[in-house]
Amino acid sequence: MFRSVFKEIQAAFDYGSMLTKIIIVNVAVYVITALLGAFFPEIYGTYILPYLAIPGDLLTLLYRPWTIITHMFLHQGFWHMAMNMLILYWFGNIAGDLLGDKKILPVYFLGGLTGAIFYVLSYQLLPDVVGIYALGASAAVLAIVFTAVFTAPDYLMHLILLGPVKIKYIGLTILFFDIIGTAGNSNTGGHIAHLGGSLFGFLFVYLLRNGTDVSAWFYKNTDKRSKQNKKSSKLKIAHRSEVLQAKKEQNDKGKATSEVDMILDKIKRNGYDSLTEEEKEILYRASKS
After folding, report:
1. What end-to-end distance do the CA atoms of the chain give, in Å?
2. Is there a single domain that holds both residue 71 and residue 190?
3. Who has greater pLDDT, 112 or 248?
4. Do 240 and 177 fall into the same domain?
5. Are residues 129 and 38 in the same domain?
6. CB count, 10 Å around CB of 45?
7. Does 11 lie in the same domain as 139?
8. Residue 159 pairs with which residues in a beta bridge?
9. Number of domains observed in the structure of the chain
10. How far apart are CA 239 and CA 234, in angstroms?
């Protein structure tokens, strides 16, 4: 049984979307750390957790720079992990469909990094209020949330008991509780980090609409390596017909990009629900390319 479960998880990781991969990694890290915390609490609390969570102290952070990354895959308790992954799944699918799956990982990382910066700065300013360590994917997840919210604020999400709700109101509710949370005595640093992740989501969409894709550097090298591998794997002579075909494909790609830009502008003006079925299909195909 365990072998079949492992194979299914491996297949989901190998062939699933980037969103699926991020969720699998988060769940796997939680399972491992939860087992260590349950059976070896002293070892986990003394020798493992402090080396995975990000410290507020700059000197400690200097000797543990990897925590800038590891903290955003670490969770304290099942519900902490489950809520983050549910929210990531809901809004990650929206952001992935609208902007493309390959943008999910850089937004996740950069949003988590921004949240970490906000947390560390808050610790320097409020050391008596902010905790000495921070952990959790919340800032990274909220970067995804607000990327979706600012891309298509009128996108409808169907909530239990409430029915269809525009995601801009969900975003405003989350933002409200994080703002008032910074004035409380519980998880002040965490709420400040959340605001950092939310801010990155807004800035990402704002810059993208103005022609700057801050996530491009993240996957550009991967795309180059992929193209180089394809070229080296098979020696091919380009005949005139192949050149013409390549030019035609390039023109078609340029036309598709222009159509996607027009659709995104329409979403900005009137919301996602204003799109025709044909426009939604074009946007969906573009997100998978």
Report:
1. 36
2. yes
3. 112
4. no
5. yes
6. 12
7. yes
8. 163
9. 2
10. 15
Sign of CA dihedral 134, 136, 138, 143: positive
The answer on 153 and 24 residing in a single domain is: yes
How many C-beta atoms lie closer than 10 Å to residue 266's C-beta? Answer: 16
Structure tokens of 44?
């986990």
Q: Residue 187's domain is classified under what CATH number?
A: 1.20.1540.10
- In tens, the pLDDT along 171-218 reads 999 999 999 999 877 889 999 999 999 999 999 999 999 989 998 887
Residue 116 backbone dihedrals phi, psi, to 5 degrees: -65, -40
Query: Do 156 and 243 belong together in one domain?
Result: no
Q: For residue range 134-149, what is the model confidence (pLDDT) as tens digits?
A: 999 999 999 999 999 9
pLDDT reading at 274 higher than 90: no
In this structure, the answer to whether residues 55 and 184 fall within a common structural domain is yes
Distance CA 88, CA 211 (A): 26
Q: Which domain holds residue 273?
A: 236-288
- Assess contact for 259 and 282: CB atoms under 8 A: yes
- Mean pLDDT, rounded, for 160-174: 92
Give the dihedral sign, CA 201/205/207/211. positive
